[in-house]
Design goal:
The complex is a heterodimer of chains A (250) and B (440). Chain A is of the alpha/beta class. Chain A contains 8 helices and 12 strands. Chain A has a single domain (2-249), classed as P-loop containing nucleotide triphosphate hydrolases (Rossmann fold), CATH 3.40.50.300. Chain A has helices spanning 42-50, 74-80, 97-111, 119-133, 150-164, 180-193, 233-241, 244-249; strands spanning 2-13, 16-27, 31-35, 56-64, 67-68, 82-85, 92-96, 143-144, 168-172, 199-204, 217-222, 225-230. Chain B folds into 2 domains: 13-280, no CATH class; 385-440, no CATH class. Chain B is built from 8 helices and 22 strands. In chain B, the strands form 2 sheets. In chain B, strands 1, 4, 5, 7, 8, 10, 11, 13, 15, 17, 19 and 21 form a 12-stranded mixed β-sheet that branches. Chain B has a 10-stranded mixed β-sheet with strand order 3-2-6-9-12-14-16-18-20-22, with helices on one face. In chain B, strand 2 and strand 3 form a beta hairpin. The longest helix of chain B is centred in the last third of the chain and has 19 residues, at 421-439. Classes of the chains: A alpha/beta (250), B alpha/beta (440). At the A-B interface, helix 2, strand 7 and helix 3 of A face helix 6 and helix 7 of B. The structure holds adenosine-5'-diphosphate and magnesium ion. Adenosine-5'-diphosphate (ADP) binds next to helix 1 of chain A.
Chain lengths: 250, 440
């Protein structure tokens, strides 16, 4: 069954058309990758899925698990199981990472009718996940993303994803700024979450990431449209040939 | 300073009868100080809108209220320390009611060796020779408008003297303002003197009891000796119809440290002026603070930091959250004298608007006459960053909780500058309860 269904999505930002008719169906258990040049609308798609303000949907629909996703506020989307690992996570001074994580976990638990996580359980959980992701334990004592290196920010995004166990996760260029070791660790984190009830949309610029997170489908996006879809081999083709011919087509 | 404005003050008549009864009235030197102060007050009045340093804080409402002098704790019966006074573990509580010591409410403990705490009244009566070289030395009546008013009518206060290398102690001065049937004004005069190498933490809580309006006009003269460290943490949670106009004049000797934090969550009209003279080389001054205002509250933090000699460091981080029709003011003057080379002075003021109604004025003034210095100042005001809000909500946190987290985070950033762990925790709790009250 389709977990997420994007139909003929048109989006404009400040009167400028960015997405020009995106259709994409992702079933539970699948990993899709979107590749495409800069400025083509990949982050726009991510942000529209997550519910950021400032994007005008002029046509089309997005449904998640049969619900009209676009009608839900961002927090409700997240609690329903949608997650976006941001391309550029913001730094929020004064808000400690651990307090933030706990609040987010409890928001989800409340929705599920579960009791709040207790302090010990929380620490144990975060410690275990930190270890797997190579995150130093004292990182969560620091203000959220403040002064984190590019790589630390990306790991922190994956940590959040791991803790919140979303049903559908979008990773927006989570690989950029990561060295090869970090890339492996982050990919392992994603792969550990793969399963029959979850789906992923992995946005990347480079084929490299897809060696570690092997997708079921690859889509090429250019000029606000999906211009080609195929299996994982499409990624190799793109790596070899570049986006030029798709740009012309768009 | 010449005051060009003349707001006639309401203190003249009601106070006249009290002159003879003010402590120290029989001593020529103290009487002289008072006469000078009264002279300045009577010719200049209270600062009006044309006095530059007071242009954002008008006293038009103050001068309309017929305040009566409140010179004794017996005027009003306060039986317990009000709720809302933070608990600082291990701190010795000294309670003042309308500026007068309440022995009953204060902790009954002896002064540790090397520290003497007494009332101004006591020192004026018994050991005036100790006060004579100090009183009015840092805050003369001509230099601060509120000092003139304070000096003319000061009736009591605390004198805190730490001897050389005093190893440290934490005092919590709880200043309770309480008017009975009539509005009252009180003008406590405090002295804090740290000899070389001494350490002291002073927490001040200013809190009010419900009732008529009152004016609290404390003046504190602070002298920090060589290599000495004073941490002064001031919390103002006066009543909504209370006026709080305080002045602190600080002198720092070589390698001395003065760390201040001003937390303001209450009071109808609050103005805090802190002037620090960094007289010795290598001194450190930190004046940080936060204000959280709602309704028609007005708060003004005015600081003057004078880098008179070189190798000094000063830093300031002041954050404000404003809602309703409140008005926040930050004025920060930094003066770096010609010979004050290698000075490092930093200042940052940030205000967060929770609605469209409030007003915030920020006036940084840098007067730099030395060339080999590092000075940086910044000011930013704005509404909550929608990107921050979205980030939290994208993780499932509802809008109200997310907003509260961001306001808290904005303020905690300032709280983090408090180096004393216990005070940091207590002040953080105060911010959290302010947020809860607001949400309720
Ligand atoms: N908030 C915004 N305001 C103005 N233009 C935007 C905004 N977000 C995206 N854009 C524009 O939309 C286009 C697509 O951007 P984006 O979705 O970030 O592309 P990609 O992620 O593929 O690099 C770009 O031309 C970009 O300038
Ligand atoms: Mg992008």
């Amino acid at each position: 069954m389709a977990l997420i269904e994007i139909k003929n999505l048109h989006v404009s930002v400040q009167g400028k058309d960015i997405l020009k008719g995106i259709s994409l169906t992702i079933n539970a258990g699948e990993v899709h990758a979107i590749m495409g040049p800069n400025g083509t609308g990949k982050s726009t798609l991510s942000n529209v899925i997550a519910g950021r303000e400032g994007y005008e949907v002029t046509q089309g629909s997005v449904s998640f698990d049969g619900q009209d996703l676009l009608a839900m506020p961002p927090d409700a989307r997240a609690r329903a199981g949608v997650f976006l690992a941001f391309q550029y996570p913001v730094e929020i001074p004064g808000v400690s990472t651990s307090a933030f994580l706990k609040t987010a976990i409890n928001a989800k638990r409340r929705t599920e009718g579960k009791p709040e996580i207790d302090a010990m359980e929380f620490l144990k959980l975060v410690k275990a996940k930190n270890k797997a992701l190579g995150i130093p334990d004292d990182m969560i004592k620091r203000p959220l993303n403040v002064g984190f290196s590019g790589g630390e920010k990306k790991r922190a995004e994956v940590l959040q994803m791991t803790l919140l166990e979303p049903r559908f996760a979008v990773l927006d260029e989570t690989d950029s700024g990561l060295d090869i070791d970090a890339l492996k660790i982050v990919s392992d984190g994603v792969n550990a979450l793969r399963g029959p009830t979850r789906a992923f949309l992995v946005i990347t610029h480079y084929q490299r990431l897809l060696n570690y997170i092997v997708p079921d489908y690859v889509h090429v996006m250019a000029g606000g449209r999906i211009v080609k879809s195929g299996g994982k081999e499409l990624a190799y083709e793109l790596e070899a040939e570049g986006y030029t011919k798709y740009l012309a087509a768009a | 300073m010449r005051l060009t404005s003349l707001l006639d003050h309401p203190f003249r008549d009601a106070y006249a009868a009290k002159f003879g009864a003010l402590p120290g009235a029989t001593q020529a030197w103290i009487d002289g100080l008072r006469q000078t102060a009264r002279g300045i007050l009577n010719t200049s009045g209270l600062p009006g809108p044309r006095v530059e340093a007071w242009k954002f804080t008008g006293l038009g409402d103050v001068v309309k209220i017929p305040f009566l002098p409140s010179s004794s704790a017996e005027d009003i019966d306060v039986r317990e320390i009000p709720l809302g006074v933070p608990h600082i573990p291990g701190a010795r509580r000294i309670v003042l009611v309308n500026g007068v010591l309440s022995a009953e409410l204060s902790d009954a403990v002896n002064d540790p060796p090397g520290l003497r705490i007494g009332t101004l009244k006591h020192y004026l009566a018994r050991e005036p020779q100790i006060l004579k070289p100090i009183l009015g030395g840092l805050a003369s009546s001509g230099s601060y408008p509120m000092a003139a008013l304070n000096t003319a009518y000061m009736s009591d206060g605390l004198v805190i003297l730490a001897d050389k290398n005093f190893p440290g102690s934490t005092l919590h001065i709880i200043s309770i303002g309480a008017a009975g049937a009539d509005p009252v004004a009180f003008h406590p005069r405090h002295i804090i003197t740290l000899a070389a190498g001494a350490q002291l933490n002073v927490i001040e809580t200013h809190i009010g009891l419900p009732g008529q309006s009152y004016l609290s006009n404390p003046l504190t003269e602070i002298s920090v000796g060589e290599n000495a460290t004073l941490k002064r943490y001031v919390m103002v949670a006066e009543d909504n119809d209370a006026f709080h106009l305080s002045t602190a004049a600080v002198a720092l000797a070589a390698h001395g440290t003065f760390e201040a934090f001003h937390l303001v969550v209450g009071g109808g009209k609050v103005r805090q002026e802190v002037a620090v003279a960094m007289n010795g080389a290598g001194a450190t001054c930190r004046i940080n603070g936060l204000y959280a205002l709602t309704g028609k509250q007005h708060h003004d933090l005015t600081t003057v930091i004078d880098h008179a000699v070189g190798h000094g460091t000063s830093s300031q981080l002041v954050k404000g959250v404003v809602d309703g029709q409140s008005h926040g003011v930050f004025q920060g003057r930094i003066h770096v004298a010609k010979d004050a080379q290698k000075t490092d002075a930093r200042q940052l003021h940030k205000a967060l608007f929770l609605s469209k109604g409030p007003e915030v004025d920020c006036k940084p003034e840098l007067e730099i006459f030395a060339d080999d210095v590092q000075c940086a100042h910044g000011a930013a005001t704005g509404e909550m960053d929608p990107n921050h809000l979205f980030y939290l909500m994208a993780r499932g946190i509802d809008a109200d909780t997310a907003r509260a987290m961001l306001v808290s985070g904005f303020l905690e950033d300032a709280i983090a500058t408090i180096s004393d762990e216990l005070v940091r925790a207590a002040f953080s709790d105060l911010v959290q309860s302010w947020l809860k009250r607001r949400a309720a």
